[in-house]
Amino acid sequence: MNDAAKLASIVLEISNQKAIARGDGKYYPRTSAVSRCPRDMVFHRFGEPWSDDPEASWGTQLRFDQGHDGEDRMITKLEEAGIPVEYQQMEVVNTTPGGLKVLGHMDGIACVPPEYPLGGKWYVIDVKTAGKYMYSKTYSPTESKVSLNYRQQVSLYSEAVVQDSNYPGISGYKVSDLHFDGYEFGGGLIVYLAVDRPTKGYGEKKVDLPKMHICQFDIDPVEVEVWLEDTYDLVEDHYQNGTVPAVPDSNDEVVWRGIRCSPRWCRRYSVCQGLVPPNNKELEEALHG
Ligand code: SF4
What we know:
Lambda Exonuclease, Chain A; 35% helix; globular
Protein backbone atom coordinates (compact mmCIF):
# COMPACT_ATOMS: atom_id res chain seq x y z
CA MET A 1 0.00 0.00 0.00
CA ASN A 2 1.51 3.39 -0.90
CA ASP A 3 1.39 6.40 1.41
CA ALA A 4 -1.63 7.95 -0.32
CA ALA A 5 -3.64 4.75 0.13
CA LYS A 6 -2.47 4.55 3.74
CA LEU A 7 -3.65 8.11 4.32
CA ALA A 8 -7.11 7.28 2.93
CA SER A 9 -7.35 4.20 5.12
CA ILE A 10 -6.54 6.26 8.24
CA VAL A 11 -9.44 8.61 7.47
CA LEU A 12 -11.78 5.65 6.90
CA GLU A 13 -10.61 3.96 10.09
CA ILE A 14 -11.26 7.03 12.24
CA SER A 15 -14.69 7.56 10.70
CA ASN A 16 -15.48 3.88 11.30
CA GLN A 17 -14.32 3.90 14.93
CA LYS A 18 -16.66 6.81 15.64
CA ALA A 19 -19.56 4.90 14.09
CA ILE A 20 -18.72 1.75 16.08
CA ALA A 21 -18.54 3.74 19.32
CA ARG A 22 -22.09 4.99 18.64
CA GLY A 23 -23.39 1.57 17.58
CA ASP A 24 -27.13 1.59 16.99
CA GLY A 25 -27.91 3.05 20.43
CA LYS A 26 -30.67 2.02 22.77
CA TYR A 27 -33.62 0.23 21.23
CA TYR A 28 -36.86 2.13 20.76
CA PRO A 29 -39.63 1.53 18.22
CA ARG A 30 -38.84 3.77 15.25
CA THR A 31 -40.57 4.01 11.90
CA SER A 32 -37.42 3.52 9.84
CA ALA A 33 -37.02 0.05 11.42
CA VAL A 34 -40.29 -1.27 9.98
CA SER A 35 -38.48 -3.52 7.52
CA ARG A 36 -35.64 -4.58 9.83
CA CYS A 37 -35.03 -8.27 10.52
CA PRO A 38 -37.22 -9.07 13.56
CA ARG A 39 -34.58 -11.37 15.04
CA ASP A 40 -32.00 -8.58 14.98
CA MET A 41 -34.58 -6.20 16.47
CA VAL A 42 -35.27 -8.59 19.35
CA PHE A 43 -31.52 -8.91 20.02
CA HIS A 44 -31.36 -5.12 20.09
CA ARG A 45 -34.41 -4.98 22.42
CA PHE A 46 -32.55 -7.25 24.84
CA GLY A 47 -29.69 -4.70 24.75
CA GLU A 48 -27.28 -6.97 22.89
CA PRO A 49 -24.38 -4.95 21.39
CA TRP A 50 -23.05 -5.50 17.87
CA SER A 51 -21.11 -8.72 17.42
CA ASP A 52 -19.90 -7.80 13.93
CA ASP A 53 -18.50 -4.31 13.57
CA PRO A 54 -18.36 -2.89 10.04
CA GLU A 55 -14.94 -2.93 8.38
CA ALA A 56 -13.41 0.51 7.89
CA SER A 57 -12.88 0.00 4.14
CA TRP A 58 -16.65 -0.36 3.58
CA GLY A 59 -17.18 3.28 4.57
CA THR A 60 -20.57 2.39 6.06
CA GLN A 61 -20.88 5.70 7.91
CA LEU A 62 -19.87 7.66 4.81
CA ARG A 63 -22.54 5.92 2.76
CA PHE A 64 -25.09 6.75 5.44
CA ASP A 65 -23.97 10.39 5.42
CA GLN A 66 -24.23 10.48 1.62
CA GLY A 67 -27.88 9.50 2.03
CA HIS A 68 -28.49 12.44 4.38
CA ASP A 69 -26.70 14.92 2.13
CA GLY A 70 -28.57 13.65 -0.94
CA GLU A 71 -31.88 14.03 0.87
CA ASP A 72 -31.27 17.73 1.59
CA ARG A 73 -30.13 18.45 -1.94
CA MET A 74 -33.04 16.59 -3.52
CA ILE A 75 -35.55 18.53 -1.44
CA THR A 76 -33.88 21.75 -2.62
CA LYS A 77 -34.17 20.54 -6.24
CA LEU A 78 -37.88 19.79 -5.80
CA GLU A 79 -38.45 23.27 -4.38
CA GLU A 80 -36.43 24.88 -7.20
CA ALA A 81 -38.75 23.07 -9.60
CA GLY A 82 -41.74 24.77 -7.95
CA ILE A 83 -42.78 21.84 -5.74
CA PRO A 84 -42.93 23.12 -2.15
CA VAL A 85 -41.93 20.64 0.54
CA GLU A 86 -43.71 21.45 3.80
CA TYR A 87 -43.26 20.12 7.34
CA GLN A 88 -39.72 18.92 6.75
CA GLN A 89 -38.37 16.57 9.45
CA MET A 90 -41.68 16.71 11.31
CA GLU A 91 -41.91 14.29 14.23
CA VAL A 92 -44.84 11.88 14.00
CA VAL A 93 -46.03 8.94 16.08
CA ASN A 94 -47.85 5.72 15.23
CA THR A 95 -49.56 3.66 17.92
CA THR A 96 -49.41 -0.10 17.43
CA PRO A 97 -52.43 -2.35 18.11
CA GLY A 98 -50.55 -3.36 21.29
CA GLY A 99 -50.26 0.29 22.41
CA LEU A 100 -46.58 0.98 21.63
CA LYS A 101 -45.54 4.39 20.36
CA VAL A 102 -43.44 4.32 17.19
CA LEU A 103 -41.46 7.48 16.51
CA GLY A 104 -40.63 8.79 13.06
CA HIS A 105 -39.33 11.87 11.26
CA MET A 106 -40.85 12.48 7.86
CA ASP A 107 -38.79 14.02 5.08
CA GLY A 108 -41.78 16.22 4.31
CA ILE A 109 -44.99 16.81 2.40
CA ALA A 110 -44.78 17.79 -1.27
CA CYS A 111 -47.56 19.79 -2.92
CA VAL A 112 -47.36 19.10 -6.66
CA PRO A 113 -48.80 22.03 -8.66
CA PRO A 114 -51.84 21.24 -10.86
CA GLU A 115 -49.94 21.81 -14.13
CA TYR A 116 -47.47 18.99 -13.33
CA PRO A 117 -47.94 15.22 -13.75
CA LEU A 118 -49.44 13.86 -10.49
CA GLY A 119 -50.45 17.50 -9.95
CA GLY A 120 -53.16 19.03 -7.76
CA LYS A 121 -52.30 16.60 -4.95
CA TRP A 122 -50.09 16.53 -1.88
CA TYR A 123 -47.93 13.57 -0.97
CA VAL A 124 -45.93 12.28 1.98
CA ILE A 125 -42.45 12.02 0.51
CA ASP A 126 -39.21 10.33 1.37
CA VAL A 127 -35.94 10.80 -0.49
CA LYS A 128 -33.71 7.75 -0.92
CA THR A 129 -30.25 7.58 -2.38
CA ALA A 130 -29.95 4.35 -4.34
CA GLY A 131 -26.94 2.32 -5.37
CA LYS A 132 -26.78 0.69 -8.82
CA TYR A 133 -28.59 -2.50 -7.82
CA MET A 134 -31.53 -0.88 -6.06
CA TYR A 135 -31.91 1.81 -8.69
CA SER A 136 -32.01 -0.68 -11.56
CA LYS A 137 -34.63 -2.74 -9.68
CA THR A 138 -36.78 0.32 -9.08
CA TYR A 139 -36.44 2.38 -12.24
CA SER A 140 -39.32 2.03 -14.69
CA PRO A 141 -40.87 4.81 -16.79
CA THR A 142 -44.15 2.90 -17.04
CA GLU A 143 -44.95 1.44 -13.62
CA SER A 144 -44.40 2.12 -9.92
CA LYS A 145 -41.84 -0.43 -8.75
CA VAL A 146 -41.38 1.12 -5.33
CA SER A 147 -39.43 -0.97 -2.83
CA LEU A 148 -41.63 -2.56 -0.17
CA ASN A 149 -39.55 -1.26 2.76
CA TYR A 150 -39.84 2.36 1.58
CA ARG A 151 -43.56 1.99 0.90
CA GLN A 152 -43.96 0.68 4.45
CA GLN A 153 -42.05 3.59 5.97
CA VAL A 154 -44.00 6.30 4.15
CA SER A 155 -47.32 4.50 4.72
CA LEU A 156 -46.58 4.55 8.46
CA TYR A 157 -45.84 8.29 8.33
CA SER A 158 -49.12 8.91 6.50
CA GLU A 159 -51.11 7.07 9.17
CA ALA A 160 -49.18 8.63 12.06
CA VAL A 161 -50.21 11.52 14.28
CA VAL A 162 -48.25 14.80 14.44
CA GLN A 163 -46.39 15.28 17.71
CA ASP A 164 -43.91 18.05 17.09
CA SER A 165 -43.45 21.19 19.19
CA ASN A 166 -42.39 23.07 16.03
CA TYR A 167 -45.90 22.58 14.64
CA PRO A 168 -48.28 23.12 17.59
CA GLY A 169 -51.17 24.14 15.30
CA ILE A 170 -51.50 20.64 13.85
CA SER A 171 -50.48 18.62 16.90
CA GLY A 172 -52.62 15.49 17.28
CA TYR A 173 -53.76 15.50 13.63
CA LYS A 174 -53.33 12.38 11.55
CA VAL A 175 -50.91 13.21 8.74
CA SER A 176 -53.23 12.00 5.95
CA ASP A 177 -56.01 14.22 7.39
CA LEU A 178 -53.96 17.43 7.01
CA HIS A 179 -55.37 20.04 4.67
CA PHE A 180 -53.61 21.98 1.93
CA ASP A 181 -55.79 24.50 0.09
CA GLY A 182 -56.46 23.38 -3.48
CA TYR A 183 -54.73 20.01 -3.05
CA GLU A 184 -56.10 16.53 -2.38
CA PHE A 185 -54.17 13.83 -0.55
CA GLY A 186 -52.40 11.71 -3.17
CA GLY A 187 -50.60 9.05 -1.06
CA GLY A 188 -46.87 8.54 -0.94
CA LEU A 189 -43.94 9.44 -3.16
CA ILE A 190 -40.46 7.98 -2.97
CA VAL A 191 -37.90 10.18 -4.68
CA TYR A 192 -34.89 8.08 -5.68
CA LEU A 193 -31.53 9.68 -6.35
CA ALA A 194 -28.97 7.42 -8.04
CA VAL A 195 -25.61 7.75 -6.29
CA ASP A 196 -23.65 6.23 -9.19
CA ARG A 197 -24.15 6.77 -12.90
CA PRO A 198 -27.40 4.83 -13.51
CA THR A 199 -27.24 2.58 -16.57
CA LYS A 200 -28.97 -0.43 -18.00
CA GLY A 201 -27.43 -3.20 -20.12
CA TYR A 202 -23.80 -3.88 -21.01
CA GLY A 203 -21.26 -3.10 -23.72
CA GLU A 204 -22.66 -1.36 -26.80
CA LYS A 205 -26.21 -1.85 -25.54
CA LYS A 206 -25.53 0.15 -22.37
CA VAL A 207 -27.96 3.06 -22.00
CA ASP A 208 -28.03 5.85 -19.44
CA LEU A 209 -31.01 6.09 -17.12
CA PRO A 210 -32.24 9.36 -15.57
CA LYS A 211 -30.32 10.39 -12.46
CA MET A 212 -33.50 10.55 -10.38
CA HIS A 213 -36.78 8.71 -10.35
CA ILE A 214 -40.10 9.05 -8.53
CA CYS A 215 -42.54 6.29 -7.52
CA GLN A 216 -46.09 7.07 -6.40
CA PHE A 217 -48.27 4.69 -4.40
CA ASP A 218 -51.53 4.73 -2.45
CA ILE A 219 -51.73 4.25 1.30
CA ASP A 220 -53.63 1.30 2.77
CA PRO A 221 -54.44 1.88 6.49
CA VAL A 222 -55.17 -1.85 7.01
CA GLU A 223 -51.71 -2.79 5.76
CA VAL A 224 -50.21 -0.24 8.16
CA GLU A 225 -51.99 -1.84 11.14
CA VAL A 226 -50.65 -5.25 10.12
CA TRP A 227 -47.08 -3.95 9.70
CA LEU A 228 -47.18 -2.21 13.09
CA GLU A 229 -48.38 -5.37 14.82
CA ASP A 230 -46.12 -7.77 12.94
CA THR A 231 -43.03 -5.66 13.60
CA TYR A 232 -43.06 -3.69 16.85
CA ASP A 233 -45.65 -5.67 18.85
CA LEU A 234 -43.99 -8.90 17.80
CA VAL A 235 -40.58 -7.70 18.99
CA GLU A 236 -42.02 -6.55 22.33
CA ASP A 237 -43.93 -9.82 22.83
CA HIS A 238 -40.75 -11.80 22.28
CA TYR A 239 -38.84 -9.62 24.72
CA GLN A 240 -41.53 -9.79 27.41
CA ASN A 241 -41.84 -13.58 27.02
CA GLY A 242 -38.08 -14.15 26.93
CA THR A 243 -38.14 -15.63 23.45
CA VAL A 244 -36.43 -14.92 20.13
CA PRO A 245 -37.94 -15.31 16.64
CA ALA A 246 -36.43 -17.95 14.36
CA VAL A 247 -34.17 -16.98 11.45
CA PRO A 248 -36.58 -15.81 8.69
CA ASP A 249 -36.90 -17.93 5.57
CA SER A 250 -34.09 -17.14 3.14
CA ASN A 251 -36.71 -15.99 0.60
CA ASP A 252 -38.13 -13.42 3.01
CA GLU A 253 -37.86 -9.74 2.02
CA VAL A 254 -36.76 -8.78 5.58
CA VAL A 255 -33.47 -10.62 5.03
CA TRP A 256 -33.25 -9.37 1.43
CA ARG A 257 -33.78 -12.91 0.19
CA GLY A 258 -30.81 -14.12 2.23
CA ILE A 259 -28.30 -11.41 1.26
CA ARG A 260 -28.67 -9.63 4.59
CA CYS A 261 -27.53 -12.66 6.62
CA SER A 262 -23.82 -11.97 6.46
CA PRO A 263 -21.35 -9.94 8.55
CA ARG A 264 -21.31 -7.45 5.66
CA TRP A 265 -24.90 -6.38 6.29
CA CYS A 266 -25.95 -7.68 9.71
CA ARG A 267 -24.29 -6.25 12.82
CA ARG A 268 -25.39 -9.18 14.99
CA TYR A 269 -24.67 -11.96 12.52
CA SER A 270 -22.30 -13.96 14.75
CA VAL A 271 -24.69 -13.94 17.74
CA CYS A 272 -27.60 -14.86 15.49
CA GLN A 273 -25.74 -17.78 13.93
CA GLY A 274 -24.39 -19.04 17.28
CA LEU A 275 -20.77 -18.31 16.31
CA VAL A 276 -20.24 -16.29 19.50
CA PRO A 277 -22.24 -16.32 22.77
CA PRO A 278 -24.41 -13.27 23.48
CA ASN A 279 -23.17 -10.70 26.00
CA ASN A 280 -26.62 -10.27 27.45
CA LYS A 281 -27.58 -12.94 30.02
CA GLU A 282 -31.32 -12.65 29.40
CA LEU A 283 -30.72 -13.12 25.69
CA GLU A 284 -28.49 -16.09 26.39
CA GLU A 285 -31.36 -17.70 28.30
CA ALA A 286 -33.85 -16.84 25.60
CA LEU A 287 -31.62 -18.46 22.99
CA HIS A 288 -30.42 -21.51 24.89
CA GLY A 289 -32.82 -21.93 27.83
S1 SF4 B 1 -28.10 -12.93 10.41
FE1 SF4 B 1 -30.00 -12.69 9.24
S2 SF4 B 1 -31.60 -13.64 10.52
FE2 SF4 B 1 -29.82 -13.30 11.81
S3 SF4 B 1 -30.24 -11.35 12.81
FE3 SF4 B 1 -28.98 -10.95 10.98
S4 SF4 B 1 -30.41 -10.49 9.35
FE4 SF4 B 1 -31.56 -11.48 11.02
